[in-house]
Amino acid sequence: MEIMSPDTQRIAPTAEPADGRERQRRSIRHAQAQLAAFVRSSADDVAEAAHAAEAALRGALSSGAGVERVSAELEVSPRALRAIFDGSVPLRSLHPDDRLRFA
């Protein structure tokens, strides 16, 4: 049986929220990278880039970061983020190159 010292008991509860915040930051940075890759995508890789970006957005929101925080850090409106998250708006339909929006 392991006995925790009083110092360990004070540190342990605060370590978990810090780990959660770091996981959220990593998820948001990953979503930023995937969105950037989607914006740069060409006709050859737009479908794969859109899928990867949508998954990364879902991951960022599922990490526990709120919609407002994720939308602010990604510079995407909360409404658009929710629509992409729930699948009502496919990310590909928002591609900056009109020719790549629909296949």
Brief characterization of the structure:
This protein has one domain (22-100). It has 4 helices and no strands.
User: Mean pLDDT across all residues, rounded?
Assistant: 87
Instruction: Please state the overall shape, judged from the principal axes of the Cα atoms.
Output: elongated
How many domains would you count in the coordinates?
A: 1
CA distance, first residue to last residue = 61 Å
Please state the oligomeric state of the protein chains shown: single chain
The number of distinct β-strands equals: 0
Instruction: Give the structural class.
Output: mainly alpha
Described by strand count, sense and barrel closure, the largest sheet is: none
Q: Which blocks of ≥5 consecutive residues have pLDDT under 50?
A: 8-12
The topology string of helices and strands comes to HHHH
Describe this structure in words.
This protein has one domain. It is mainly α and 103 residues long. Helix 1 (6-40) runs antiparallel to helix 2 (46-62). It is elongated, with a radius of gyration of 18 Å. The longest helix has 35 residues, at 6-40. It has helices spanning 6-40, 46-62, 67-74, 78-86. The termini are far apart.
What attributes characterize this protein structure?
103 residues
SSE arrangement:
Elements: H1 6-40, H2 46-62, H3 67-74, H4 78-86
Helix pairs in contact: 1-2
